[in-house]
Amino acid sequence: MFSFKYKSHYFSIENIIATQERVPCRFTKKVMFMGHLDSSSDENDIKPGTKLELPYWMVRSLTDPVVDVIEVESPKFFKESYRDILTADANVVDLHKMSKHYYQFGKLLSQLDSLQGKQLRSLLVQTFKDRFRKLLDWAQNMGADQLIAENLDDLEKQFLINSRDAQIKLNKWLEMGAGHIVAAEMVLNHKKRKLSALEVF
């Protein structure tokens, strides 16, 4: 049976991996005893103005209003130039090269207040819609080039695998044929009892 759900949760491996993606940011305040985050510096502290690429899970904590020590920038493949390419023709873009978990990472980024989350979510939804028809065509065409999967992010790959599995099962069911429809034994027995009752009278 075809079943496909896309919902992140605490124990989701895909979600954990997506939070490891790097996000460019700039420190706006001095942070004590965190100099080891900057491999190019021998300082014990991080100075204001320092630019680093940190994993999303750390960026999420550092942008918390209680902490608020960094300014976040969009990763390059979510910037305006890449958005224009996706808007023009999303099907020609190699999402896997951008990020193995493009949609999941984008969803996480949209939760950061400084990155225009509403626009980013709209971009993700529209990108998936634009690529959906081709994904569906590939799923129904078993002879399609297997190399096409290399351009898909992990969400799209899983969708393609599940869709092809569903198509194979449908084809097998159609080949079996529906067979002859016969009445259930209970119905036949009921008819016999009614006939027997009529014969008595």
TrEMBL record:
Subcellular location: Nucleus
Pfam families: PSF3_N, Sld5
Keyword Zinc-finger: no
One GO term (biological process): mitotic DNA replication initiation
Stated name of the protein: DNA replication complex GINS protein PSF3
Subunit structure: Component of the GINS complex.
Species per Swiss-Prot/TrEMBL record: Clastoptera arizonana
Domain of life according to the entry: Eukaryota
PANTHER family: DNA REPLICATION COMPLEX GINS PROTEIN PSF3 (PTHR22768:SF0)
DNA replication complex GINS protein PSF3 N-terminal domain sequence ranges: 11-63
Record's function text: Required for correct functioning of the GINS complex, a complex that plays an essential role in the initiation of DNA replication, and progression of DNA replication forks. GINS complex is a core component of CDC45-MCM-GINS (CMG) helicase, the molecular machine that unwinds template DNA during replication, and around which the replisome is built.
UniProt domain GINS subunit: residue ranges: 78-174
GO cellular component: GINS complex
Keyword ATP-binding: no
Stored InterPro entries: GINS_A, GINS_bundle-like_dom_sf, GINS_Psf3, GINS_Psf3_sf, PSF3_N
Family: Belongs to the GINS3/PSF3 family.
Positions in coiled-coil regions: none
Alphabetical keyword list: DNA replication, Nucleus
